[in-house]
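Researcher: Let's continue the batch. This sequence belongs to Protein p34, and it's 305 residues. Same format as the previous ones, please.
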Amino acid sequence: MTAPDNRTVLKLALWGMPLSIGVMGLKMLAWWVTGSVALLSDGLESIVNVIAAVIAYVMIGYAAKPADATHPFGHHKAEYFSAVMEGVLIVVAALLIIWEAVPEMMAPSMLDAPALGLAINFGAGVINAAWAYLLIRAGRRHRSPALSADGHHILSDVVTSAGVLVGLLLVLATGYAILDPLLAVVVAGNILWQGWKVISRSIDGLMDRAVPAEEEEAIKQAIADNAGGSLGVHDLKTRQAGPATFVDFHMVVPEAMPVGEAHDICDRIEDAIRAVQPGARIAIHVEPEGEKAHGVRVKTTASRA
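Model: Same format as before. Here are the structure tokens for Protein p34:
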């Protein structure tokens, strides 16, 4: 695991704006040359992508601000607000698609210039697929909820585009124009589901969800391997706030242990935790012997610093 790089995250968010505008233009062009409601639904979702890209850039920039007197733990959670807003915008896009599709179901019509429109939309989908892969990968690497949400949203857009292309080929093959608006409604349902997933993941972050189980196990192991000299630790708690991970726990030491020696143990543990959780914010409360130690056992053979 690598340490989050705010400059890389912000740069990707900046590039997201012109790319999303370009893809939106291609999709709306595909709708204009064909008159397809399904392609219009794909284009409407891309409008949301543009708005979401702007919000993500602003929020990622704000989240990167250093801690201050009024926000002593930093501004990391601002990224979750970006993700929540993006989820809401996804839902709005789905409702707009349904609004456009229902009247068309009453009077369906065949497509104009279908080959050109589908080719344009396919090109936009390829660009989106590559960009979604890059954003999701960067979002995981740098622990950026905003980038991850944007990447997953664009990935859902890619799935939507693929479904639209297949559906419109069926329209051309069968001659059933009603399939076009019906497909748009199916697309809207998929977008609603994606929007809910984006919102639910963001709510977890705002509610101070603990780190994933495998990461918590790595933290526990780092503590156990480097807490030699102490009598044990307890009350281990973790939480994530965007790219930041917070770890705190209590460490029990012999009552007669000098403060400097206890401090050395803390330094050793902190270094070990940051080796598995780069950039982690760590708080260790040292307690004298007599406090009950539980939760994470230490290796008594560990050497002292």
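Researcher: Any comment?
Model: The chain is about 65% helix and 10% strand.
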